Amino acid sequence: MAGAATSSRQRSKIAPYLMVLPALAYLAIFFVVPFFSLARTSLSETGGSVFMPTMEFAWDFGNYIDAFVLYRDQIFRSFGYALVATVLCLLLAFPLAYVIAFKAGRFKNLLLGLVILPFFVTFLIRTIAWKTILADEGWVVSTLGAVGLLPDEGRLLSTSWAVIGGLTYNWIIFMILPLYVSLEKIDPRLLEASKDLYSSAPRSFRRVIMPLAMPGVLAGSMLVFIPAVGDFINADYLGSTQTTMIGNVIQKQFLVVKDYPAAAALSLGLMLIILVGVLLYTRALGTEDLV
Amino acid sequence: MSKDFPSPIDPQLMARLTARGTSRRRFIGGGAAAAAALTLGSSFLAACGSDSGTSSSPTEDSGPASGTLRISNWPLYMADGFIAEFQTASGITVDYKEDLNDNEQWFAKVKEPLSRKQDIGADLAVPTSFLAVRLHQLGWLNDISDEGVPNKKNIRPDLLEASVDPGRKFTAPYMSGLVGLAYNRAATGRDITKIDDLWDPAFKGRVSLFSDAQDGLGMIMLSQGSSPENPTTESVQKAVDLVRDQNDKGQIRRFTGNDYADDLAAGNIAVAQAYSGDVVQLQADNPDLQFVVPESGATTFVDTMVIPYTTQNQKAAEAWIDYVYDRANYAKLVAYVQYVPVLSDMTEELQKVDPAAASNPLINPPPDVLEKSKGWAALTDEQTQEYNTAYAAVTGG
Fold this sequence. Notes:
The complex is a heterodimer of chains A (291) and B (397). Chain A has helices at 2-42, 62-70, 72-103, 108-116, 123-133, 139-146, 160-171, 173-184, 188-196, 201-230, 233-238, 246-257, 260-285, and strands at 44-48, 53-57. With 291 residues, chain A is mainly alpha-helical. Chain A has 2 domains: 2-42; 75-285, MetI-like fold, CATH 1.10.3720. Chain A has a two-stranded antiparallel ribbon with strand order 1-2. In chain A, helix 1 packs across helix 13 and helix 3 packs parallel to helix 8 (173-184). Chain B is α/β, with parallel strands linked by helices and 397 residues long. Chain B has helices at 11-17, 31-47, 82-90, 103-115, 129-137, 157-160, 185-188, 213-223, 233-248, 260-266, 276-283, 314-324, 327-337, 347-353, 355-359, 367-372, 381-395; strands at residues 68-72, 93-97, 124-125, 172-184, 207-210, 252-256, 271-275, 289-292, 299-305, 374-375.
């Protein structure tokens, strides 16, 4: 009896590890190995012939300095665009998620379905559709022009705002869904209680809803900000030569210029900056739960 | 193969939707679009039941060509029914893939297997001349025998004896074309004749240049009195500097691959660097579009059929090239893809297939236009890398 109990207890200790094994193996093969390969490349020197280069590992940190000095503008621009897009997503998504979570009643599932619906179309097609909508000769530009609301360039397409708009539009679902999940979890009786205690509506929003929604805000911001920083499709299709982002640079370094060490240094450097930023942001929001 | 069956999506519509995806020229970037088009392309092929990857019998020295021939070509670079006719005429089964979307990206894909002499899934491919030369220098191409391709004699004399490959020993030209300027008459309100028109302040933010170093810089070098036929570090840098100045002023809207076409037709771009064949096709929908060879001249490009040294069917590849080089067959191709023929004396055959094409100066350019058009010299690897890097610094990486 005693022996059987021990072995079953031992088995129950091993079981969780066995269960995470596939995920760990996946992570090792598809993240850890490529990560170290990328890190190695980023510190290498190229030699050999131009089109069949050999990579020589050399602890060459100069790759990082060169790449970040040369593409400083694009890096700042990427973080700026991603930041503005994240704030816009938050401002647009919060009221929407709030209404779906608290006011939608029996339409809740329908509204959630509508939020997801556009994502059945590939994001490439949706982004190209924006080109048509914002075209110089399109009705949006002519209408805005008629009421004097056009920016200085006299156009919408191929401006910073078109790129930021594209980022906001393409990533907003990743803000809406986590926000909805954390708002939906809020017990309505907490709101009733705050009302019973004579709290005004703005005050209960600030003191009850906001703190409880924080995990959703954090998760949503990261899910929008991180991919938006590295995005290149929106800048490619909706931007101009003045709006290139770091994603465009990395893509070109890898595929056209074929300066693999520089491309790898930019990729890893970007990853590090984002990591530090996210840690600081998590600290500032004072929550470690994601949803 | 895919073209023989009605495809569920109108290729013209696809071209509009995924501008870059269907582009057959060497664009930079837009990998996702290319991937999307590739995925679609291969699903078309799957639907047609053509199984890729089946290996054919190795080359034998005697007997006629047979077995399977695997071809990698650019999208929209083949005429309807052409492959079926070749299959009937030759008894060779063709596995046709439109998986060449971009020269540099295609090179990035095949260079590892080729360096280990492993099969790349193609017995014949159609890279642009400069890349074909690079593959040859790396020792990765088979020679194309004169016996296998008796129709080689039909090649335009200027191409047959071109400095990149005199006698066409390892490259067989497929199509050539002009890199010039295209403009939307409705948007410019005037005719465009020279490179300086690109820098007209009236077109601020409505000009697009090619992101490819050779196609983008060639005609600008010509306008500065230097020539891509004998490029130097200084002459290339001078062109790059001019582009940088104009870009800093906000004159240039985008650096493009083939995707200038949409913006040009929509009126977002007034003047664009353009490929002749594209504009002929676009004119059908939008008569306002015009293509001009700038006063200082245009550059030419040649896409070439090559046989990688990993080919599994050398004889079938040569039989294909010979079939293409028959003037009657080739006229059908030209009428469809609307580029400049690489064979001489095509007017008669073109008239039989498509009289409009025969009289179109963009397809059948008059001698004075061809005279003004210069091709890039065969560059060394170091030169290519140097020019690409210099231009990439301006095109924004």
